[in-house]
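Running this now, will post back.
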Amino acid sequence: MTRVVQLVGTINPTTHSTTHRSPDLVGAAPIRTDARGWAETLVRLATEQPFTVFVFWPEKGDEMQVRRFGEEVAPMVTASLG
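Update: finished.
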């Protein structure tokens, strides 16, 4: 069985601080955090729910958001679940 979740939000630019946070998922509220926070959220959903497919839907049609998801978030998730 495949479990799919669609996640709407924005991947904020990574800051030099360690103040990222994996957001609390509440209803249809968009996720707004940095790449590390996104990765932690996806790992949590993959292990606790367990969802097996994630669809990222940027709040704004921005190619850079899709690139960040593929180049920053996905590798962290893969490494964590590996």
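The mean pLDDT is 87. More later if anyone needs it.
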